[in-house]
Write a structure and sequence with these properties.
With about 750 residues, this protein is an alpha+beta fold. Helices cover about 40% and strands about 15% of the residues. The protein is built from 29 helices and 17 strands. Strands 11, 12, 13, 14, 15, 16 and 17 form a seven-stranded antiparallel sheet that branches. Strands 6-5-8-9 form a four-stranded antiparallel sheet. A three-stranded mixed sheet has the order 2-1-3. Helix 14 packs across helix 16. The longest helix has about 30 residues. The chain is elongated, with a radius of gyration of 43 Å.
């Protein structure tokens, strides 16, 4: 579009050109947009002096002293029809513009200034005796005649009651609070265009300042904890291990491998998880029901759905005195946790702190603290601060160290809330209605229970793996002995779930096997298992790094957990194997050796079983495993080496031809896979120390790996130098003397 600005006294004589006159109200908006320092207009206006004061130009347009032409004819004009006649002129024009148009229609435009009277002599012309009176002063429009209606709503349509607002223009500043319906009428505005803010102000950079303030506090706490850890370790290292630890084996798996930090009471593990799930659903349901409503609606709905009995049960499960925490305080803690968890930068900051804080306490439950447990940490800090000295004995042991974070978390959450409840609108026309809707609150976070999956060790680097084992030793010494990481039921669940969540597997290796049989010392020509004489493949049984973490780097504890006979005279190493790289380099396949997985492996990888499906199904069962174990126990070395002598022995045991074939099939499975008479078939090993009096206590989930392209330890470890070419790390193992 093309616009031209001119004075009303310079109106063209042609009525046809008047059809391009822009209505003064529209002209004010157009010129205001061009002169607005906060916007960039797509068009220009001829004869507009950019140095002229903005409010002066707009006032002259509004009073009719200046007029604007739109040569395209697209803007609203001053005539009701395409005829520039008095009958079609609109009625709401400034008086000065109306008079100018009427003067043109009456033919008196420019009348009022007489021509000089000429004399018939040579004397100068005589000025007329009559001079017109000066033009009356231009009527000034009241600069504060404009209004603006405000309407601010929650997403559900209800008004944001009592919310603050600001209306600001170049010559206007109005502030106040909306009424109970979220409405207000603002009068006395001097600008045709204003900016509007609903809600609290959100100064630029304030959110980053609050995050940095919280980070400074987090860093200060971590520094103190790390300094304390160094002092504790120094004092412990001066004492013999036998004086620092005692016999502390958790028979029957009564004690769970809970967090050394204890941010939330272990009651979550012992509590009926169905009830915790119910409380969690109630919290999320109340929050979701009011995501589109007011803060008060959230509190009211929470109190309706979460009665005092439910509140007491959940607060007690979280490790606090239920009488020290009100429902309002629990609602506030949940809201703050949800706001912080919904902000990626704040969530990551808290997550990193939780991991670092846990490691400073000699704990390696990295996966437990990094992620969903951000909510638990925030809840612990806020509820602990609310409970004060009334926190239950099961409350976080380190709560007093974290309590100063409560204020910083509240301030950060309050600022994050502004991003949802504060809205800005720019270039709003006055004499209109400015309507706005605040954003819904974020999704409510989930209260996670401390189940066995939260105890899994999720590390993906050798550095992380070694750090986890170092921390495990510190924890083992501090606790006075070995405590199983998982219950028997949890081990069975892990065996059924598979290896998708495990980056590393580990194998206990005697140091002499690293160099290989009759090889030069230091050559590292050994392999992870004994090569098969026929095809050169290597097969070995192992477990995951997560499984042996609780045994740290003590070879005796690892051997007991893996069901392997421990030789106190031998020197052991732990081979940590990167599964993904092993697949690429060694063409390795790793499975959890259950009955079904062993059968599938044999059918797909071992020759000679094509016509033995029925036999495989028969002998790979718990029932036949018990029979096989009993028969094998009575065999001597001669029976192991000779098929004829073995058959003679089995006939003496009363086996017929069908049973002989079954036994021989099972015997060959042991030869081909290593699944011996102690094989349990459920993916678990038998703990040699805890299994007593015929009662089997599982030690660890086991894995079976077959390498079709086996590598030497020299190749696997990149000559012992590690680096990106290595996929195995060898760790020296040092026994711990627990005393007798």
């Amino acid at each position: 579009m093309s616009y031209r600005l001119t004075e009303v006294a310079a109106l063209p004589n042609s009525p046809n050109e008047w059809l391009f006159l822009v209505h003064p109200l529209t002209a004010v908006d157009i010129v205001s947009a061009v002169l607005n320092p906060y916007t960039t207009a797509r068009y220009k206006i001829e004869n507009l002096d950019p140095k002229q004061r903005r409010n002066e130009v707009l006032e002259q347009l509004a009073s009719g002293e200046l007029v604007l032409f739109d040569t395209s004819g697209a803007s609203p004009g001053i005539f009701r029809h395409r005829r520039a006649e008095p009958e079609t002129l609109v009625s709401n024009l400034p008086p000065q513009l109306t008079r100018a148009l009427n003067d043109h229609w009456s033919g008196t435009a420019g009348v009022g200034i007489s021509a000089p009277v000429q004399s018939d002599s040579l004397a100068p012309a005589i000025e007329p005796a009559y001079q017109p009176s000066p033009a009356p002063p231009r009527p000034k429009r009241d600069p504060g005649f404009r209004t603006l209606d405000l309407n601010y709503r929650w997403p559900d349509g209800t008004g944001v009651a009592e919310a603050p607002y600001v209306v600001e223009g170049l010559n206007t500043y109005k502030e106040g609070h909306l009424d109970s319906e979220g409405k207000a009428r603002v009068t006395g505005l001097k600008d045709p265009v204003v900016n509007v803010r609903f809600g609290q102000p959100a100064p630029a950079g304030e959110l980053n300042i609050l995050r940095r303030q919280l980070q400074v506090q987090l860093d200060g706490i971590l520094k103190r904890e790390r300094d304390d850890a160094v002092r504790r370790q120094a004092s412990t290292d001066k004492l013999p291990l036998a004086h620092n630890v005692g016999i502390h084996i958790a028979h029957g798996f009564v004690g769970l491998w809970d967090s050394a930090v204890g941010l939330i009471s272990n009651n979550l593990t012992l509590l009926n998880l169905t009830h915790v799930g119910y409380y969690n659903r109630a919290l999320q349901s109340a929050w979701a029901a009011t995501r589109d409503g007011s803060d008060q609606a959230w509190v009211d709905t929470f109190k309706q759905q979460f009665d005092e009995a439910n509140k007491q049960a959940l607060v007690e499960a979280l490790g606090f005195d239920p009488d020290a925490i009100t429902r309002e305080q629990l609602a506030e803690a949940y809201e703050v946790a949800s706001l912080i968890s919904a902000d990626p930068e704040s969530r990551d900051m808290i997550g990193r702190f939780a991991v670092d804080f846990a490691q400073a306490q000699d704990s390696t439950e990295i996966s437990y603290f990094a992620g969903g447990m951000v909510l638990e940490l925030v809840l612990a800090i806020l509820m602990g601060a609310a409970a004060g000295a009334s926190a239950a004995s099961g409350a976080p042991r380190y709560l007093r160290k974290l309590a100063p974070l409560a204020t910083a978390l509240r301030n950060l959450a309050a600022r994050l809330k502004i991003t949802y409840q504060t809205r800005y609108h720019y270039n709003v026309k006055t004499d209109t209605v400015c309507e706005s809707t605040c954003r819904p609150r974020p999704d409510g976070v989930e209260v996670e229970t401390r189940n066995f999956r939260s105890r899994r060790l999720n590390v993906t680097t050798f550095e992380g793996a070694k750090a986890a084992l170092v921390a495990a030793r510190h924890r083992l010494i501090a606790r006075g002995g070995y405590t199983p990481k998982y219950t028997q039921e949890e081990l069975l669940i892990l065996a059924r779930e598979g290896l998708d969540n495990d980056h590393f597997i580990v194998r206990l290796v005697e140091e002499q096997h690293v160099d290989g049989h009759q090889q030069t010392s230091g050559s590292m020509n050994g392999t992870l298992g004994r090569p098969d004489g026929q095809n050169g493949q290597v097969r070995f049984w192992s477990t995951t790094l997560d499984q042996i973490e609780a045994s740290d780097t003590c070879p005796r504890l690892i051997a007991q957990q893996l069901g392997v006979e421990y030789n106190p005279k031998a020197t052991y190493k732990l081979a940590i194997i990167d599964r993904e790289k092993a697949v690429k380099v060694a063409d390795a396949e790793t499975i959890i050796p259950t009955f079904n997985n062993i059968k599938a492996h044999i059918r797909n990888n071992v020759d000679g079983y094509a016509d033995k499906d029925e036999l495989l199904d028969k002998v790979m069962t718990p029932e036949y495993q018990a029979t096989y174990e009993k028969l094998v126990e009575g065999m001597g070395s001669a029976e192991w080496e000779s098929v004829d002598r073995r058959n003679a022995y089995l006939v003496r045991q009363g086996l017929d031809a069908v049973q002989l074939r079954q036994f021989e099939t099972r015997f060959n499975i042991q030869t081909n896979t290593g699944a011996n008479q102690h094989f349990l078939g459920n993916g678990l090993t038998k703990h040699t120390e805890l299994s007593q009096d015929g009662k089997v206590v599982h030690g660890a989930m086991e894995t079976l790996t077959v390498e079709k392209n086996p590598q030497t330890f020299h190749a696997m470890t990149n000559g012992g130098q590690g680096g990106p070419e290595a996929y195995v790390e060898l760790i020296d193992l040092t026994p711990i003397d627990f005393g007798d």
